[in-house]
What does this fold into?
Amino acid sequence: MKKHLISTPILLSLAGTAAAQSSVALYGIVDAGITYRSNERTGSTGAGQGHSNAAVTSGNLSGSRWGLRGKEELGNGLAAIFVLEDGFDITNGTEGQGGRLFGRQAFVGLADTQYGSLTMGRQYTSLDDFVGPVAPVSAIGGFGAHPGDIDDLDQTTRVDNSIKYTSKKYAGFTFGALYGFGGQAGSLKSQNTWSVGGSYAHGPLQVGVGYEHSDNSKTGPKDPTSGKWQGTYDGTFNSSINEGFASAQSQQVVAAGATWDFGPAIVGANYSNVQYKAGANSLYSGTATFNIAGLFGMWKVQPHIHLFAGYSYTR
It folds into this structure.
C-alpha cells in the first residue's frame, strides 16, 4: 500500500529570535485483502473441528493506520517533534490496540542533528527499533510474523509512560535505550520496562541486536509490556503460544537479526530467546524459555510483484 504525505510549511514568529520553520504531515496506510486458511479451528478455545475459511482481512502487509507527524525547527540543528498514530480495522472500522485513539504511537520530544533524539510517551521498545527492521515482518508484513509475536519483533508491543533515546548514526552504527515507568507509587522498579538496542548498516548488510525486560508482567492491573488494561486486545499475552505465562513475575527478550540486500532480492536470518520467570503470584513455577530461529528471503520479480518465502521454528 502507498503512504501519502501532506506537508504544510508554516512560518512561526518567535519573539527576539529568527523565524522558525514548522511542518505537520498527515499520513496513513489502508490495507485489506482476502485470506484463505485451510484448517481453522472453531469455538472460543480453538478446540473445535478444523474447517477452511476465506475472509476479508485487515493489516495483511501493514497494519491499517492514520497519523500526524510534526516537526518545528528550533535552530542550531535542534527540532521539536511529535507523532500521533491511530490503528484501525478496515473491515469493520473499529479502533485497534484495545480501542485506543492513538494506540500505535503517541509521543513528543526533541531531535538534534548532532546528538540524536529524546522522546516521551507511548512508544515502541528499542528492541523493536533495531531488530524489527531485519525481521521477516519488515519484508512481508504480517505474513512473516512469528507465532504470537512472542519475541516482540512484529511491533505489536508498545510501552506507556516511557522515555526513549536514539542516537544519530556514527560510521554505520546507531544505538538507543528506553525506560518505561511502571507508575507504581513508592517504586521505580515495579511494573517497569526497559530496553536497549543497536544496529549496524554498511552497503548491503544490516545487523540489529536488542534486549528487553519487563517487571511484574501481570501481577497488577496493567501489563507493562503493552500498557494495556486486562481484557482488551493490545498486548503481549493475547496469543495461545504464551498466554499461559501471563502471570509471570518478569519477562525478558534477547534478539538479533541480519539482512543482506542483493538488489532484486533480500535474504535474512534471526534468532530470539524469550524467558518468563515465575514469582510468588504466578500460576506456574520456575522459568519458561522459548527459542525462536528463522530464515527468510524476498525476490522483487517486478516493481509491484514480490515473492516471499520464510521458515521459523519456535521451541
Q: What stands out?
A: The longest helix spans residues 126-131. The radius of gyration is 21 Å. The chain has a mean pLDDT of 84.
